[in-house]
Design a protein that fits this description.
This protein is of the alpha+beta class. 41% of the residues lie in helices and 24% in strands. The chain has two domains: 2-218, 2-Layer Sandwich (Cytochrome Bc1 Complex, Chain A, domain 1), CATH 3.30.830; 242-416, Metalloenzyme, LuxS/M16 peptidase-like (Cytochrome Bc1 Complex, Chain A, domain 1, 2-Layer Sandwich).
Length: 420
């Protein structure tokens, strides 16, 4: 695998040359600082652009061109990551070395059509497609309460990360969605190209020699913003522990417990915490799994995850509402046990093996590689071989001492009132 980065006034080009895949992936990122007013527009725009375009002005035509290009597919999304928001356009197509050389340019033309030539007339998005997508998003918003995991995660984030971009989901409110019109969406779309967004193009696969030239010809009308951006949120968590219980008609209750991370170094946050979290709640025989689920049968599911760019540790569990207090007690006990050397020793080597097994899949994972080089534009990220080395260097004492920098912040439960 070889990596090359090319800077110009239009975009930053990232070339990841590898022969592990028979496809080529070209991913275009438009990134700027998060603005909560963009959420409704982000959802609408990402969906409208891939639904139809000016040239392929029906859903059927869009599907046909993809098939004509040997199954080429363009997807788009709007997301919030740390302090930033981004539009992501991804083209996935068969490497032209297995078809014909002309398919390189024709496939990239498909991506270009979707990004630069929307289905717009008189400075408005075409109304029929616009209405279909708007109604689909409304339906998705209204169905959030039918998905307990999603609803609980959204409500937990509102409390845990209050006052930061992390407190928002990519689902807009119905009121905000109603304010989006075909004309206002077009005005928002035009802002993608006004120089306010940092633009990155990441290409991965066995890259043709003329790829850089083709991309340069197709994307020469845009201009990137070279302002320094960062993903990391400096969130000042309140010292008071926030507790909230909501109720909906589900059989199972959802419990979220959030811990804030205090003044961790880069090494602690990226390496020691990774081992800590694996022992606590991510591997098959984690502390939470063994104690809360296996020994006490208090939950259906349990685990933990880390939010690195808004430094926090979250523990989640699916429980019966009558087990709420005992489950919370045992989760706190598990976190406290991470200060116990004998407890940590029993799982320490297994945790490192689990992490290394996951890291060994990196070179076969397109998304992981694309995101690594993209995220490096905003934060320091070590290469995969350095990560492996530093994980293996983590000591038991460092994991144990990390508990001094982990403090309880939020307890949230979505109580299922259908429980017996």
């Amino acid at each position: 695998m070889e990596y090359k980065k090319i800077l110009n006034n239009n975009y930053t080009l990232h070339l990841i040359n590898t022969d592990r895949f028979k496809t080529l992936n070209i991913v275009v990122f438009f990134t700027k600082e998060f603005n909560k007013n963009d959420i409704a527009y982000g959802s609408m725009l990402a969906n409208n652009l891939v639904y139809t375009s000016k040239k392929y002005n029906t859903k059927n035509k869009m599907a046909i061109i993809g098939e004509d290009l040997y199954g080429a597919r363009v997807s788009s999304s709007f997301g919030i990551n740390g302090k930033l928001e981004s539009f992501i356009f991804s083209l996935d197509f068969v490497n032209p070395k297995y078809t014909e050389d002309k398919y390189l340019e024709e496939s990239i033309d498909f991506l270009k059509e979707i990004i630069f030539n929307p289905n717009v007339k008189d400075k408005k998005f075409e109304s029929n497609s616009f209405d279909i997508i708007k109604n689909d998003i409304k339906s998705n918003i209204n169905s959030i309460k039918d998905n307990p995991n999603l609803f609980a995660g959204i409500e937990y984030s509102k409390i845990m990360y209050k006052g930061t971009p992390s407190s928002y989901s990519s689902y807009p409110t119905l009121d905000d969605l109603e304010k989006v019109t075909p004309s206002s969406l077009y005005r928002f779309y035009k802002d993608l190209f006004n120089g306010n967004y940092k633009i990155d193009i990441v290409c991965i696969g066995e890259l043709p020699n003329n790829l850089t030239e083709v991309i340069s010809n197709k994307f020469n009308s845009i201009k990137t913003n070279d302002k320094k951006l960062t993903l990391t949120i400096n969130h000042k968590y309140p010292n008071k522990i926030e507790t909230k219980i909501d109720t909906l008609k589900f059989n199972q209750s959802k419990l979220y417990i959030g811990y804030r991370l205090l003044d961790m170094s880069y090494y602690e946050l990226n390496y020691v915490l990774r081992v800590y979290n694996t022992i606590l709640g991510t591997m098959n025989d984690s502390l939470l799994f063994n104690i809360v689920r296996e020994e006490h049968s208090l939950c259906y599911t349990i685990g933990s995850y880390v939010s690195k760019y808004n430094p926090s540790l979250t523990i989640y569990a699916g429980i019966n509402k009558i087990n709420y207090e005992e489950t919370v007690r045992l989760i706190k006990e598990c976190v406290n046990l991470m200060s116990d050397k004998k407890t940590v020793e029993t799982l320490f080597e297994s945790a490192k093996k689990t992490i290394n097994t996951y890291l060994n899949t990196y070179y076969d994972d397109v998304i992981s590689q694309v995101n690594t080089y993209y995220n490096r534009e905003f934060e320091t990220i070590d290469d995969i071989e350095t990560i492996k080395e530093k994980i293996n260097e983590v000591k038991i004492e460092e994991v144990i001492n990390l508990n001094k920098k982990i403090k309880l912040s939020t307890i949230y439960m979505l109580k299922g009132d259908n429980n017996e």
